[in-house]
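Researcher: Quick one. two chains, 551 residues in total.
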Amino acid sequence: MQPDTVPAPVPAPASPEAQRSADVIHNIGYRHYDGPRLGRGYARVSLFSQSLRGAYGLGRSAKSKVLPMLLFAAMCAPALIIVAVAIGTKMTKLPMQYMQYTIFLQMVIALFVAAQAPQSVSRDLRFKTTPLYFSRPIERIDYVAAKFAAMTAALFILTAVPLVILYVGGLLAKFGFASQTAGFGKGIVAALLLSLLLAGIGMVIAAITPRRGFGVAAIIAVIAISYGAVSAVQGVAYSQGNFDAEGWFGLFSPISLLDGAQSWWLGATVSNPGNYGPPNAFAGIVYLLVLLAVIAGCFGLLMRRYRKVGLS
Amino acid sequence: MYNPTVARLTFRALLGRRRALILFALPALLIVISVAVRALAGVDDNVTSDLLGGFALATMVPLIGVIAGTGAIAPEIDDGSIVYLLAKPLKRPSIILTKLTVAIGVAMAFSAIPTFIAGYILNGNSQQLAVAYGIAAAVASIAYAAVFLLLGVVTRHAVVAGLVYALVWESLIGNLVPGARTLSVQQWSLALAQKIGGGDIVQSDVGLPVAIVLLVAVTVAATWFAAQRLRSLTLAGEE
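Model:
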C-alpha cells in the first residue's frame, strides 16, 4: 500500500518559517491491530504448556532433553521389570503396593524436581525476563499458578505413568480387577499429593535463587537430605523400640510426611524400619493437615515472592 | 601454582551469602541429630556407626563436596565472568589447583570437622569411631572436590551430574549392585575408616591398598583433566 502523506503546503523559498513548515510528519501507514485478542486466559494456558513442555526439555535443545528423559525412563523401567517378573513367575499379586512405588523411587523424583524447578523459574529471574511476562495481560497469580501447575503436572506425569504401567500389567496378569483398581486409584491420589508437595517446595526454593546450580543443591538438600536424616533417626528409634516416636519423626521430611499421610489416609505400608507410620488417628490427621498446609504455604510464599520482582 | 588472589575470590564466592547458608545448615543438622540420638539412645557404638556411615558419610559429605567442588568454578563459567580470570597472565593449571585447594579446604571444614564432633557427641570416640569417620570424611572430601571441580569445568549441568553420581550411583545402585561399590569414593574412604576404627563395626567392600591407590589416582586424574579442559575452554551461550 502506498503510504499517504500529510499534504505539505507549497514551500515559499528562502524564508525560515517556510523552511520549518516543510518538516512534516509522514504517515507511513502504521495501523492498529484490529484482530481478536486472546487475552489473559490464553496467556495463562500458554505459560502453563510452555513450562510443562520445558520441564521435559520439549522445545529446548537436545542436551536439555537428556536428563528429564533419562529420569523418566528410570521411573518407568522398574515398573516394567516388576510387571514382567510378576507375570513370568505367576505371582498372585503385584510384589509392591502402588503407593510404595513412588516412595521406592523417591530419589529419581527428587532429582527431577531439583533439576527442572530451577530451569522453570530461576532463568526468568536471572535474565530479568520476569517483567516481560507481566507486560502481558497476566496478573501475578496467573504466573504463579501457571508455573506451579506446570511443575505439578510434570511431576504427576513422572509419578503416574509407572503406576499406569503397573495397573495395566496387573490387569493383564488377572490379579483381580476390583483390588487393582482400588490400589491404582489410591496410588494416583497419593501421586497427585506428592506432585503438589514437591512442586511447591521446589518452586519456592528455585524462586528465591537466580542461580540454577545453587537452586538444584538446595532443593536436593531439603528433599533428599531431610529424608536421609529422618530415616537415620527413625532407625535409631526403631532399634530402641520407641515405635510411637518413630511414627512421629516422619513429619520432618517431605517424602516421609507424604508416606505417613498416605499410610493413615489410604492404608499404604510405610517404608521405614518395621513399617511404623502415624501411631494413631490424631497423628494421621496431623500428618494430612501438615501436608496440606505445606502445599498451601508454598503457594502463599510464591505469591509473596512475586509481589515484588523487578529489575534488581 | 597457588595464587592468593584467585584463592580469595574463590573463597568469597563459596562462602558468599546463600551458598554459605546451606554449607552451615547441613553440618548443623548432623550435630542436632547426633544430640537427639544421644538423648534418645544413649551411647551405642552400632548406632554411632550407622548414623555416621549412613547419614554423614553417605549423604552429607557428597552433597557438601558437590557444593564446594562445583561452586568453586561452575558459577563463573556459567555467567561468563571466567573470561576475566582467564585473560590474566596466570597458568590455567594453577587456576585449577588454587580453586581445588580452596574447595578441598571448604569441603573438609564443613564435612570432616562436623563428622568428628558428631562422633564425639554420639559415643565419645569409643573404638576410635569419631576419628575414623572424621578422617574418612576428610579423605572423601579431597576426592569429591577434585571430581566435582572437573564436572564443573566439563558440563554446565555439573550440580545435577554430581548429585546423580552421589545419590543414584553411590546410594541406590551401590545398595543393589555390589560391584558398583568398588567404584565409589564412599567405599574407598570407608576402607580407611575400617583400618582406623577398632572392632568390626566399620565395613568396607574395598581393600585398603586398592582404596588408597584409587583415591589418589582419581584425584590426580580429575585435577589434570580439569586443567586440560580449562586450557581449551569454550564459552557457550545459555541454551
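The radius of gyration of chain B is 18 Å.
Researcher: Thanks, that's what I needed.
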